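Sharing a chain and its predicted structure for anyone who wants a worked example. Both blocks are below, sequence first, tokens second.
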Amino acid sequence: MKAARWVLGGCGLLLIAVGARLLSLLPDPVAVGVWLGGALVLHDGVIAPLVLAAGMAVAAVPARGVVRGALLTAGALVLVTLPLLLRPGTPPNPSALPLPYGRNLALVLGVVAVTAAATALAPRLGRALGRATGRGRSR
């Protein structure tokens, strides 16, 4: 076990050295450092508290697993699409961003919401249909 720690630690140090070397080759490594620092502050100061607050808010919901999964999926979709939505101005090449990303994001988020609602309501609907047809479980 001790040897594995040394090997993994050595691999980690090697990757840090590769990253530092690649950073030194950039034309403006300070700008990259500022960007990475901003990303860290944004994550720890905004995104993480919002995720924790959303998790606490849905803790009392009966289908909290489905709701948390839907929120996680929606958050990932928004983070992937956000750079395309916030890009300033028109792209120099019209084929670079040819789609209406805002509308498409809204459609996909709607599909996520409908799927989550159907998944959360499916057990209730199944029990109700079983009672209506007389096939429900006897208790």
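Comments welcome. The radius of gyration is 24 Å.
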